Amino acid sequence: MRSGLVRSLVFWYSVIVFATFGVLNLAVSGMIGSSNEKNIEADLRGFQESSEVFLSRYVLKNGVWGYQEVGDSLCAVLGNNLKIYSTTGELLYNVLFVDEQAPGDDMAYAAQGKSAYTIYTSGKNTRVYFSFRVEEFGIIRMEVDYSELYQNGSYISRAVLYSSASVLVTALVLLVVFAGKVIEPVNRLRNAVMELTADPSSAMPLPVRHKDEIGELTREYNKMAAIIREQLREITLEKSALEEAVAYRKHFYDNVTHELKTPLTIILGYAEMMEDTNFSDLEFSKKGIHHIISESKRLRDMVTALLDATRAGVSDTSDFEMVDLAELLRDTAASMNLKAARQQKEIVLSLPEEEQSLRVWGSREQLIQMFINLMDNAIKHGMGSKISVLSRRLGEHVEISIENEIEKSITEEELGRLFIPFYRQREEGAEPGSVGLGLAICRKIAESHGGNISALLPDERHICIRVLLLSVQTEAPTEEF
Q1: Fewer CB within 10 Å of terminal CB in the chain, N or C?
Q2: Which residue spans of the chain are classified as CATH 3.30.565.10?
Q3: Where are the alpha helices (DSSP H) in 278-351?
Q4: Mean pLDDT value across the chain
Q5: Model confidence over 112-122: pLDDT tens digits?
Q6: What DSSP assignment string belongs to 106-167?
C-alpha cells in the first residue's frame, strides 16, 4: 500500500504541530517572565517605600545618621542584604552582600535619582539588585534572592512544555492511525480503478461501508463501473452482431450469385436447345417454355426481394396517412387464405369489437407488404392447419400477433437472428428464391412506423411474431428513424 498521502499528512501535521509548539512555548515563557517581573517590581516598590518610611522615622528619632545601625536595621526589617552608598557612589556600609562585583546599571540610574534594578542569573540562582536614592541619606542597593520564584516559573514552563509535547505526540500517533484508516478505502478505490482500467469486464462493485464523502465516492465508482460494464457488454454484442451481419452478408452474396446463376443457366440452356431444334420438338419446346417461365418468375422474385430490402432501409413518410388496420388485416388475410388453402391451412383473424381502435398512422402499401410477408412466412414454414392473427389496442400502441405451429423447436440464439438481414434458419428448408430478407424488411417497416417487431416462443411447438405500431391517437412518428 502506498503511503505517500499518509506521509504528506504526517509531514504537514508535524510542521503545524512544531510551529504551534514553538509559539506555545514562547507564549508561556513570555507570560511567566512577565508575571515574574510584575511580582518583582511590586516587591521592590514595597521595599523602597518601607525603607523610606523607616529612614524618616529613624532621623526623627535620632537626628543623625548611623549608617551601620541603619543598614543592620533595614536588613533585619526587610530581610534582604544591602549596601549603602553615598550620593557620589562611595561605599559606606555592606550588610551580607553575596556578590561583591554584581553587574548592572542600576547604580548609575540611582545616582541620577531614579529607581532601577538588575536581574542576575548564575546557574540555578537568580538575584535582583535594586538601587534607589534617599535624599540626604544616600543610595541603598539591595540584593533580593528570587531563585525560588524563577525555579517555580521554570517548573511551570517545563510542565506546560512536556504536557504539550505529550499531547501533540499522542495526537500525531492517532493521526497516523486515523489517516491509515481513511486512506484504506481510498487505496481500495485506487486498486479498483486500476483493475477497471486493466479489465473492465471483471471489475466488481465495492462495498459501501461509509456514510461520508468516501461512501459517496464509492457509490459513484460503482455506478461508473456498472455503466462501463454495460457499455462494454453492448459494444461486445454490437460487435458480434456486426460480425454476424458481415458473415451473413457474405453468405448472402455467395447465395445470390448461385441463385441468380442457376435460373439464368436453366433459361439459357432451354433457349439454346430450342433454338438448335428450331422448335421441331413441340413437347420439348412446351417443357422448355414452362421452365423458362418458372425460372424467370423465380428470378423476378429474387430481384424484387433485393429491391424491397433496399427500399426498406430508406425512411420516407411522404405517403403516410391514417390507416384502418382492421380493414387492412381483413383484406390481407382474405387474400392470403387463397394461398393457405392450397396447403390445407387457414388464417384465422381475430379483431376487437371496437375496430376503430386499430387505426394507425402510416403507409398503407408498406403495411400491406409487411403483413403479407408475415402471413406468407407462416404459411411456408408453419406445420399445423391453423395460423392465428390476433389484434388489439395496447395502451398507445396497436398489437398484432401472428402465431403458427412449427415442426422443430427454435433455440434462443436462432430466435434472435430471425430479423437479421440475409439470415435463413435452415438452408435445406429454404424456399427456392428465398434470400432471407422477409423478416428484416418487416422490421424496417415496423420501425419506420414508430413501432417494433419481435419473435416469441409461447411453447416448444409454436412461434409468435409480435408487431407493435403507434396508434393514430398518439403523435405521428417523425422522419428520423
Answers
A1: N
A2: 316-481
A3: 282-312, 325-342
A4: 80
A5: 888 998 888 88
A6: HHHHHHTT--EEEEEEETTEEEEEEEEEETTTEEEEEEEE-HHHHHHHHHHHHHHHHHHHHH
